[in-house]
Amino acid sequence: MSEKVLMRGTHVVAEAAVRAGCRFYAGYPITPQNELPEYMSDAMARLEDGTFIQAESELAAINMVIGASIAGARAMTSSSSPGISLKQEGFSFLAAQELPAVIVNIMRGSPGLGNIAPSQGDYFQATRGGGHGDYRSIVLAPASGQEMADLTRKAFDYADRYRIPVMILADGMMGQMMEPVLLPESIDPRKLPPKPWILNGAKGRPSRVIKSLLLDPSVEEAHNWKLVRKHEMIGREISDAETDLMDDARIAVIAYGTAARIAKGAIKRVRETGLKVGLLRPVTLWPFPEKVFRGLDESVENFLVFEMSTGQMLEDVKLSLAGRGEVHFYGRPGGPIPTPDEVAKVISRLYHRQKL
Amino acid sequence: MAKLVFKRPKTLKQVISHYCPGCGHGIIHRLIAEVIEDLDIGEKTIGVPPAGCAVLAYNYIDVDMAEAAHGRATAVATGIKRILPDRIVFAYQGDGDMAAIGTAETIHAANRGENITCIFVNNGVYGMTGGQMAPTTILGQLSTTTPGGRDMARDGGPLDLSEMLALTSGSVYIERTAVNSPKNVRRTKKAIAKAFKSQMANRGFSLVEILSPCPTNWKMSPVDSHRWIDKVAASVFPLRVIKDKTEES
Amino acid sequence: MLKKTVFAGFGGQGVLMMGYVLAFSAMRDGLQVTYLPSYGAEVRGGTANCTVVVSDEEIASPVSSSPDFAVVLNRPSMMKYQGVMTSGGIMILNSSLVDVDPSRKDLDVVKVPANDIAAELGSDRTLNMIMLGAFVAKTGISSVDSVMNGLGEIVKGKNARIMELNRKGLERGAAYALREQKVSR
Q1: For a 10 Å CB count at each end of chain A, is N or C smaller?
Q2: Is A161 helix (H, G, I), strand (E, B) or coil?
Q3: In this complex, do A176 and C37 lie within 8 Å of one another by their Cβ atoms?
Q4: C129-171 confidence digits (pLDDT tens)
């Protein structure tokens, strides 16, 4: 095992993808994630079996990924908020045709063109499937350089295991920031389990069709329920959250990704003043780690959801708590990066207002 | 002893067709199946039919098939071909698909010189959705969205996509044919065979545009449809080899 | 210990490299680090800055609203960061290019005529290493040796003459900062 490297988040994801056996990347330039395709263009050129395509559009890129996935490759695309909107059609087709693929969203201030600052405004879009239709996609939310690497590996494994699109949902700060990272070992894609469903020419077997047009409503209904059963299995098997300092906590701060880091800094500050506050950080945004919420000690009655948005994960938290306790919210949408001091003040005020 | 003059190619499944009477898709499917069989590439061919009447091509042509979203066939075909460069990959697209919603994907696949083959079925209307104006609808032609006929000032003129594609540096072979007469059907088969062979020789992007009748949406008899292709459609979209660099190294 | 440093100047002055070398060297010293460059449209405007956080425990935010230290290579950067620095913070100032003093009186300012020293060494490209040398000597956040080792690892394969120049730059900067400190006391 080698030493830690100091790499920016986008490069970490790219290198981790290559090491996970990703051999196909297609994308279209958009800030703040351009370093990811730039890295991939070089990395793929160094591999005998690697393909990099700078596509003519986000739409073309996701459809190229669909093609590569159909042909059996581990394939990835990446973009940032406005570009992700353009890829939504492809997410729906990936889900419908049960194709594995990894999509990276380095979120920026939105809606519309917005700006290039870090933001968490795409939570709904990501966790409700991503495109049209009745389905879900796996959504992973890294909060450190190391998780950018580790969750990228997991994303490819989950995608293949469940034949489902997996999104890595990060933001401009996670993408641009450099942190020490221990990169995972490389996998030889030829040694991955064979995929018996791919299209590679009907040699010595009946021809196959990969499609999503199911004109008979009863067939489409059955397919929808089949996807639901898969979703339920995924929910049981991979939902994940980190809890920190929750043992004696009177307030649980709930945040993911960049916001969770800032919350951690804030909690450290308020703990120094004697306030009992802990952190619950969902790592899988879909499936949402409901079990962790249900397992919280009865003594926690106040929940502060903190997001760099106007409140989207907030809804999942309320659903998971099912009416229990009081749920509060603090949000900073549109790109400004809140400071730990600022969030510490919010926690303190809440703590005293609730007379804890 | 009787001489066998016609048989169904094995690559064409023995099923009842869903296409309208007089539709050109059935003929074109058979030609593709015959070419696949003649070249003995059935075990290594992958087809990509996107949304449109021909999305169900996989019900008829017995090779691996990947359905694509409307307009995205060349992008999906690109992904497949880049991972499996020794397979034969073809897209089967209508005019609305290829020349309207998929223009960008088509032009850029051609420009990159993707080593794939496009079968571009031009019947001048959106068939599956019920006969709306297509990018290839001829001036004055009636459709459900041009009830007074296609009007230059309002709708623009028919798009010469094949001529545009010929301008790209990555395209090697582009021919426009028709399937409205035995002679034209034979020419179309030759063109499809040439495009597939060009791909097998790793030449680059090849495309056969086929003027094909849609009697249902043209509101004509099949016979009149065939005549209309000769008299009207082929005067706007002349049948010819538009580009051929297959012999160049 | 948690220290946040901003490096700022014109594009082309080696600002981002300076921050990267510090972050890399601190990582090799076994510390927690984050490095956050400014990016996007702002970068193309001709200014460059990055924030390096060094700590002995987990780092929450890589962003700094009130840096402890600033290494500023030009006047706009001095104007921008003097107002937000924490009280008692250390500013290493390139006095070759910045001919005015910060108006804040609660900052510890070390003026290093980095362009002049670089000219003496015969290479403008040592500018950032001179400033970095002064910075580590003054703050003690890392050492000239650590930074030199770090730099050696980062620019593996660079020729010996350039490495020697960089080493000289680091040492001259460090020596200058230490001498200044003695004088001021």
Answers
A1: N
A2: helix
A3: yes
A4: 999 999 999 999 999 999 999 999 998 877 888 889 999 999 9
Q: Nearest-CA residue of chain A relative to C42? A: A116
C-alpha to C-alpha distance for B170 and A3, rounded to whole angstroms? 45
The C-alpha atoms of residue B199 and residue B193 are separated, in whole angstroms, by: 10
Using only the alpha carbons of chain B, give its radius of gyration: 17
Domain count, chain C: 1
Closest CB from A31, A173, A266 relative to C62: A173
Would you call B201 an interface residue with chain A, using a CB distance cutoff of 8 Å?
A: no
Picking from C20, C39, C58, the nearest residue to A32 by CB comes out as: C39
The rounded distance, in Å, linking the Cα atoms of A280 and A311 is: 16
How far does the CA of residue A294 sit from the closest CA of chain B (Å)? 41
Determine the distance from the C-alpha atom of residue A200 to the mean position of all C-alpha atoms in its chain, rounded to a whole number. Answer: 30
Architecture of domain B29-244: 3-Layer(aba) Sandwich (3.40)
Per-residue pLDDT of chain B (249 residues; tens, 9 = 90+): 788 888 899 999 999 999 999 999 999 999 999 999 999 999 999 999 999 898 999 999 999 999 999 999 999 999 999 999 999 999 999 999 999 999 999 999 999 999 999 999 999 999 999 999 999 999 999 999 999 999 999 999 999 999 999 999 999 999 999 999 999 999 999 999 999 999 999 999 999 999 999 999 999 999 999 999 999 999 999 999 999 999 886
Give the largest Cα separation in chain C, rounded.
44
Q: Is C51 within 8 Å of A194 (Cβ atoms)?
A: no
Domain containing residue C38: CATH number: 3.40.920.10
Instruction: CATH 3.40.50.970 in chain A: give the residue spans.
Output: 5-238
- Domain assignment of residue C29, given as a range: 2-184
Instruction: Report the residue from A57, A68, A202 with minimal CB separation from B79.
Output: A68
Q: Which fold has domain A5-238?
A: Rossmann fold (3.40.50)
User: Searching chain C, which residue's CA lies closest to the CA of residue A181?
Assistant: C27
* Alpha-carbon separation of residue B89 from A62, A182, A263, B31, B241 (angstroms): 18, 41, 51, 16, 22
Q: Which of C20, C24, C69, C80 is CA-nearest to residue C47? A: C80
Cβ atoms of residues A74 and A21 within 8 Å:
yes
**Chain A contacts in chain B segment 110-139 (CB below 8 A):** 112
The verdict on B62 touching A (C-beta cutoff 8 Å) is: yes
Residue appearing with tokens 């169900």 = B56
CB B195 within 8 A of CB B177: no
A268 CB neighbours in chain C (<8 A) are 60
Chain A residues near any Cβ of chain B (below 8 Å) = 23-24, 26, 51, 53, 55-57, 59-61, 63-73, 75, 89-90, 93, 97, 199-204, 207-213
Task: Tell whether A116 lies on the interface with C, counting CB pairs under 8 A.
Answer: yes
* CB atoms A24 and B43 under 8 Å: no
DSSP B15: -
Q: Give partners of A (≥3 CB pairs < 8 A).
A: B, C
CA distance B232 to B142: 13
Span A241-353 CATH architecture: 3-Layer(aba) Sandwich (3.40)
Sheet holding C108-112, edge to edge: A5-8, A178-181, C32-37, C47-55, C2-10, C69-72, C90-94, C108-112
Q: Per-domain residue ranges for chain B?
A: 29-244
- Please tell me if residue A4 touches chain C, with a CB cutoff of 8 Å: yes
